[in-house]
TrEMBL record:
Cross-referenced InterPro entries: Rhodanese-like_dom, Rhodanese-like_dom_sf
Organism: Halolamina litorea
Residue ranges the record marks as coiled coil: none
SUPFAM superfamilies named in the record: Rhodanese/Cell cycle control phosphatase
Native organism taxonomy: Archaea, Methanobacteriati, Methanobacteriota, Stenosarchaea group, Halobacteria
Domain Rhodanese, residue spans: 110-201
Name of the protein in its database record: Rhodanese-like domain-containing protein
Region Disordered, residue ranges: 28-81
Length: 286
């Protein structure tokens, strides 16, 4: 069946998120901003979004878009010969998060041997995401809990685009909720896009749309906050970066529909600032 177009709502549009994290509220500010952010993020997928998505290839049907599993691809590759205990790791919010090479992630994906979680914002997920993945956005402090209906011993792979700041925060949250077999794609979603691997969304090409632009926001807080995170948001687009040992941080944004005048919200453990994107990009946020 030609899967280049399909209705994300699967015939029934719904505004109710499938049970995932503890909260049923919809976040109205950046995760971690402290304003309008629930303790858990809504669990979104093509069955709960009233959007028409396309895929970037002729792929099998995804019979259950809420399970985070890819569709059943024909002729899957052999299992990747990786020692998961030997993977590189990050320390994130007191959790050790494993970095999975993208080649291994693709093999697990085509074999249907992992569930995939998009840790970015709703706008970014809608624009383009791994076909079959679900949205469960990262939250400050790796809160957000687990995902209802998913066994804590199942393999879960999280991803984001930066390449692994948001995904490692979400992975740490899953581990805090008792999930034991969690990974993040080391190279991130942008590499997945560049390689033309299976995706679904409303737009493709260079991460999702010609309107995507790149920005870097540099800032400083007290060095006592080293290891915590700074967040930036525009609407439902999020990004985060860890605070270094010297208190400096650098948030790399790839947002759509923004320009130098677009208000951006930057939130750290020490302060929250809102101002024009261009102004913030030209200086140091303190």
């Amino acid at each position: 069946m030609d899967r280049r177009a399909f209705l994300a709502a699967l015939g029934v549009a719904s505004t109710t998120a499938v049970a995932g994290c503890a909260s049923s509220g919809v976040d109205t500010a950046a995760p971690g901003s402290g304003e309008g952010t629930p303790t858990g993020a809504p669990f979104e997928h093509p069955g709960t979004l009233d959007e028409t998505f396309v895929t970037n290839g002729d792929y099998p049907d995804d019979s259950d878009p809420a399970d985070g599993l890819p569709p059943a691809f024909p002729d899957p590759p052999d299992a990747p010969g990786i020692d998961t205990a030997a993977l590189a790791t990050l320390s994130v919010n007191d959790e050790t998060v494993r970095l999975l090479p993208i080649d291994a992630a693709r093999a697990w994906y085509l074999r249907g041997s992992a569930r995939f979680v998009d840790a970015r914002g709703l706008t970014q997920y809608t624009r383009s995401h791994l076909y079959g993945s679900v949205l469960s956005s990262a939250q400050q402090g790796s809160t957000g809990g687990g995902i209802d209906g998913w066994g804590t011993d199942e393999r879960v792979v999280a991803y984001c685009g930066c390449p692994h700041h948001l995904s490692s925060v979400r992975a740490a949250g899953l581990q805090k909720a008792g999930f034991t077999d969690v990974y993040v794609i080391d190279e991130g979603f942008r590499e997945w896009v560049d390689r033309g691997y299976p995706m679904a969304g409303t737009a493709f090409g260079d991460g999702g749309s010609a309107a995507v632009s790149e920005w870097r926001l540099d800032g400083e807080v007290d060095a006592d906050y080293a290891g915590e995170y700074a967040w930036a948001s525009v609407g439902r687009q999020y990004e985060a970066a860890p605070i270094g040992d010297d208190g400096a941080f650098s948030i790399h944004l790839r947002f759509s529909g923004v320009d130098a005048e677009t208000p951006v919200r930057v939130s750290t453990p020490a302060f929250t600032r809102t101002g024009p994107l261009g102004e913030f990009a030209d200086g140091t946020i303190r």
